[in-house]
Design goal:
alpha+beta, Phenylalanyl-tRNA Synthetase, Chain B, domain 1, two-stranded antiparallel ribbon, 2 strands, globular
């Protein structure tokens, strides 16, 4: 996992440590064995996306202390499943992404151009685009 690359072909950066995100809860959107959901897209939550996700059966807003999950609010960053981000994109509610913290394997599900159009810092996406 330490040599993971982001969608720009550079070393994968941290997504968020408060709350601590990632399938392995390292703060990074690494993936590997056991990560059936492929939690690789580092996204900043929006109210629209959180509502969309809840409507799809994945309530990311409600805390679940038993699993160490604090519940997310708009503005929090989180490693999303690539397929859920794509689903949100198609529904017009894709949250903005941190390209430098989005794992390269996200490109197996979504186009780099789509990620770049939703980049938190478009200058980063365009610099390598």
């Amino acid at each position: 996992m330490s040599g993971a690359k982001n969608v720009l072909g550079r070393p994968l950066k941290s997504c968020c440590t408060n709350p601590k995100t990632g399938f392995y809860r390292t703060g990074r959107c690494d993936t590997g064995l056991g990560d059936d959901g492929i939690h690789v897209v580092c996204a900043r939550m929006t109210a629209e996306f959180l509502e969309f996700s809840q409507e799809r059966g994945n309530d990311l807003s409600t805390p679940m202390p038993l699993f160490g999950f604090p519940g997310l609010q708009p503005g929090n960053c989180w490693c999303l499943c690539a397929s859920r981000w794509k689903e949100a994109l198609e529904a017009g509610v894709a949250p903005p992404v941190n390209l430098e913290a989005t794992h390269i394997s996200a490109l197996e599900f979504v186009e780099l151009e789509d990620l770049q159009q939703h980049a938190l810092d478009r200058r980063v996406g365009e610099a390598n685009g």
